[in-house]
Amino acid sequence: MEKTCNIHTAFLNRQLNGGFCPATKHITLITSIKRRIGSSQTVSSLVTRNTMNTRTLIDRRVHSEVPMPEKFGMFGGKFVPETLITSLNRLEAEFIYALQDPEFQEELATAMRDYVGRETPLYFAQGLTDYYKNKDGEGAEIYLKREDLNHCGAHKMNNAVAQAMIAKRMGLKNVVAATGAGQHGVATAAACAKLSLSCTVFMSADDMEKQSSNVLLMKLFGAQVKPVEGGFKEASSEAIREWAG
Fold first, then answer.
1. Which of 33, 169, 145 is nearest to 89 (CA)?
2. Which CATH number, 3.40.50.2300, 3.40.50.1100, 3.90.79.10, 3.30.360.10, labels domain 156-244?
3. Which phi and psi (to 5°) does residue 3 adopt?
4. Sequence-ordered list of residues with C-beta below 8 angstroms from that of 5, at least 6 positions apart, any chain
5. Residue ranges of the domains in the chain?
6. Does position 43 have pLDDT exceeding 50, yes or no?
7. Predicted pLDDT at 103
8. 9-36 pLDDT, tens digit each
9. pLDDT reported for residue 234
């Protein structure tokens, strides 16, 4: 039987049943942040998990090197102000934990299917295909990925709902976002409304005037929309300041 979509992350159920909540322990259980001269640092943290209906403390150390050995190689990592490192380390630790949590992955897949509306179809664009054929009638077949059929009308929801679920895992109450034309703000507001999180969206005052319909949608979802003088860059800066506290 397929799981219904209620998008309440699995750790909340364990918490209600008397188990530990790993996310809310991250702040107090980060045991060491070892800084090394050079380009890397190690974060060690303990998290707890309820296993077989017993409260068990699991010494689960999350080692995260910065730069991370991903596709950017020696040029990867967190090249951000020092004031953001603590918040980013907490977020990274929870993200890694969520990746390894099958219950979270199952719930995310359910949310993507039942709430977001994935998988979206591929549409064969006959007109465009014919238009770009050469004189011999040869050319590529053009397909459109219909991400506009997602909830809120864009691909933005794919990202917003997953991030909101991670915020819920961490025991956070408010999600902060920046938006340009407003679609990301609408998606974030919708995801937060679904998860009973408050939402604050920073947006250029000029964009708010141009995209008043999206501003209205954000407010209908319960988000607080704050105007910022300047453009999207300034809105993003204000959102980061708010997030970092």
1. 33
2. 3.40.50.1100
3. -75, 135
4. 110, 111, 113, 114, 115
5. 10-104, 120-149, 156-244
6. no
7. 94
8. 444 444 444 443 333 333 323 222 233 3
9. 97
